[in-house]
Amino acid sequence: MILQTYQSKLVLRTLKDGEVYRAKPNLSLRREYDALIDMFGLHCECPVFAVVKGKRQNTGGKVSGSVRLTLDVPEEYIHLTEYSEWADFIYAFKFSKPGNYKVLRPDCEEITVRRYSQLIESLKSQRKLSQYNCPQVVLEKIEPAWLKSVKIFGKSGLLGRVFGR
């Protein structure tokens, strides 16, 4: 599947050196990412997020890096989520019991137990790509062999294509 992800130049350098890239934990969303890692049974410290090329995307107007990597990733490494459900989960997560993301605190009034359970089940459930409105891809790593092309962005806009395969 052809994916795109925005990363730093350090990630590009890692891949060009022939090394597998594994994301480091984001401290502000560490517990939310740990929950996602648990839901998918991933073997990583932090997931890598990507989008499906040609499908509806939502980055919230921000990208985390200055390099757009286009990847060709084998299906068995891809976990899909609905972007809006992941965003809802991040919001609702703060009302979960400390140490157990699957259970809401008893005093929570912002979201029902039923809706929260539905969010978790929907995030865990893998559907056909066509069943996602705004699919978000979750990976545990990026392999150098998956790299198809790169575009580097700078302060003055697009600087150009670095290489393509």
Please give a handful of descriptors for the protein shown:
165 residues, 7-stranded antiparallel beta sheet, disordered C terminus
Give a quick rundown of the structure.
With 165 residues, this protein is of the alpha+beta class. 25% of the residues lie in helices and 30% in strands.
Describe this structure in words.
By secondary structure, the protein is α+β, with helices and mostly antiparallel strands. Helix content is 25%, strand content 30%. It contains four helices and nine strands; from the N terminus they run βααβββαββαβββ. The strands form two sheets. A seven-stranded antiparallel sheet has the order 4-7-2-1-3-8-9. Strands 5-6 form a two-stranded antiparallel ribbon. A hairpin with a 2-residue loop joins β5 and β6. α3 crosses α4. The longest helix has 12 residues. It is globular. It starts with a strand and ends with a strand. The relative contact order is 0.25.
